[in-house]
Amino acid sequence: MEFYIGFDRALEIISSQEFLLPSEFASLFDSYGRVLRENLIADRDDPPAPVSAMDGYGVKKEDIKSIPAKLKVVGEVPAGKIPNIKVSKGEAVKLFTGSLVPEGVDTVVPVEETEGSGEFVVIKKSYPQGQNVRLRGENYKVGDILVEEGAVLRAPEVGIAASIGKPYLRVSSKPRVGIITTGNEILEPWDDLDSISQIHNTNAYTLYSLVKESGGEPIYLGILKDSKDETAERIHKGIETCDVLITTGGVSMGDYDFVKQVVKELGIEVLFYKVRVKPGKPVLFGKRGSKFFFGLPGFPVSTVVSFNLFVLPLLRKIQGARELFRKRVKAKLLMDFKRRKAERREFVRAELINKDGKFLVKPLRKQGSGVLTSLVGGKVLMMVPEGIREIKFGSEVEVVLI
Ligand SMILES: Nc1nc2c(c(=O)[nH]1)N[C@H]1C(S)=C(S)[C@@H](COP(=O)(O)OP(=O)(O)OC[C@H]3O[C@@H](n4cnc5c(N)ncnc54)[C@H](O)[C@@H]3O)O[C@H]1N2
Ligand code: MOO
Fold it and tell me: Ranges for the MoaB/Mog domain (predicted)?
């Protein structure tokens, strides 16, 4: 077991796990967030022929060089119809957004810049040649690889699959991810809290959402009370039935922190315990055969951050994803940043601002590991490297998008 390791080493251990889940076919309705296990290749050009990008009139550019220009309307081409019209000098054709552009037309004038309907149309504004005509192959050309194997499917990728006529996609099967939360003080959101010593379970539900977002199938296994026998039984069941088991809480120094002990007794090999990161220090990563175990710290922020830092890359890896980590961007720091201790790499919750295409980042005041409100509304994590105590206003910093 490696103990209290650096962040990069932890990622190295996670990304070197070789297990790959089998692939399966998923419908377009069930492919969001999953990892693609085939290339998506264009079966034809898109658009397959020039089409109008506006409702208006198809004309020849040379006829609208001087305006107003009065042109003879020779017919119309509704979307979905093959044009049987040819447009000659002095003529126009009525087109709709998505209509195929007939022979002779090189430019489309939007209807708002025209007057009259029926036999003649008056064009009031000139347009450059080719304006409002979407050329054949503008989106993609036949044979192009549109989405590569290993991509995480989001809305645009699912849309591309649909556009090339694939109702089913080869994707990774969903990792079954068991979720157990621990603590005598934890009650479910539907339970009444009778005492100020009790709190509602937050972690089960942040994790459930994060697992779904990561292409996994969350399996909620409930709250564990701080008893060693129960912990052993539940973790055993979880690791038997799931690909990845996550527990939260019970991994630090407390007298009731049974998770660590139980994991060893169940034959789960601990690959690392504790990483020099803040928050998320007492994270435990283990494996038994092709099953993986994460013991995440119990504080709600530590749970969410350590999922993003450690669990997501593993889930992506076993699904065959190309990119394992959250995206990072460079941003300019909007205030002086100071901290007392510099032993751990810190992931500081912050607000990301996009000003004229440049990212600015503003750390939030409250950074406690229990302050989940500090992550509400789309926050980011500003990375403060080990050994750094102070970063000056205006410096460039790296930011993790979560
Ligand atoms: N003496 C030391 N104490 C602590 C250390 C240390 O190094 N030495 N590390 C601290 C750090 S850092 C963290 S992070 C926490 C991790 O503690 P645990 O993983 O054992 O978590 P718990 O003690 O069970 O809970 C921590 C905190 O979070 C609340 N919690 C737990 N589960 C839930 C849940 N499902 N929903 C909402 N809130 C939850 C719990 O009530 C505690 O307040 O340890 C430090 N201590
Ligand atoms: O590492 Mo703990 O996660 O600072 O709160």
Answer: 178-317
Q: Residue 256: which pLDDT band, with cuts at 50, 70 and 90?
A: low
Minimum-distance ligand 2 atom for the alpha carbon of 305: 3
CA–chain centroid gap for 67, Å, is 49
Q: What is the pLDDT of residues 113-171, one digit of tens each?
A: 999 878 999 999 999 999 999 999 999 999 999 999 999 999 999 999 999 999 999 99
- Residues at CB less than 6 angstroms from ligand 2: 278-281, 297, 299, 302, 369
- Cα separation, 195 vs 199, in Å, equals 9
Backbone angles phi and psi of 11, in degrees to 5: -65, -35
CATH of 2-21+174-319, one of 3.40.50.720, 2.60.40.1120, 3.40.980.10, 3.40.50.11540: 3.40.980.10
Ligand 1 contact via 201 beta carbon (within 6 Å): yes
Q: How far apart are CA 16 and CA 141, in angstroms?
A: 37
Average pLDDT value for residue range 242-247:
97
CATH of domain 328-401: 2.40.340.10
